[in-house]
Amino acid sequence: MCYVWAHNPTAAVNVPYTPSGTYSYNAVGRAAANRVTRTGVGSYVVTCRGVGGGALFAGSGSWGAGGHVQVTAYGTEDADYCKVGSWGTGGADFTASVRCYNSAGIPSDHRFTLMFSW
What we know:
Blueprint: E1 2-6, E2 25-26, E3 34-40, E4 43-48, E5 68-74, E6 81-88, E7 94-101, E8 111-117
Antiparallel strand pairs: 1-2, 1-8, 3-4, 4-7, 5-8, 6-7
C-alpha cells in the first residue's frame, strides 16, 4: 500500500521531492520511500519504492503486476480534476503518472492525493 499527498504543485521540473510525511504512507519504507516529480505543467510522476509487487517482502516471493490506483485533486488551485495517466507494478517500485486539468481541459498545476493498494 502507498498513499501520497502531493503538497507542492509547483515544484521544480524533474526534481523529485518527498511528499508530506504527515499525510503520506508506504507499507515498506514509510512516507520517506515516496517521491513526487513534477515533469511539466499539470504533469507528475509518483514513485512508491518497494511496493511494486516484485520481491515485496523478504521471503514472500513476487506478487507480480496488479493493484488499484485512485487520484483526487486537492485544494483551491485552478484545477477541476486530476487523473492517472498510466501506472506500473511488477518490479520493486510502484510508479504512476498523474495529469491535472482546469475546467477548460488545459493542464494545470495542482495538489493531489494518490492511493495505491493491492
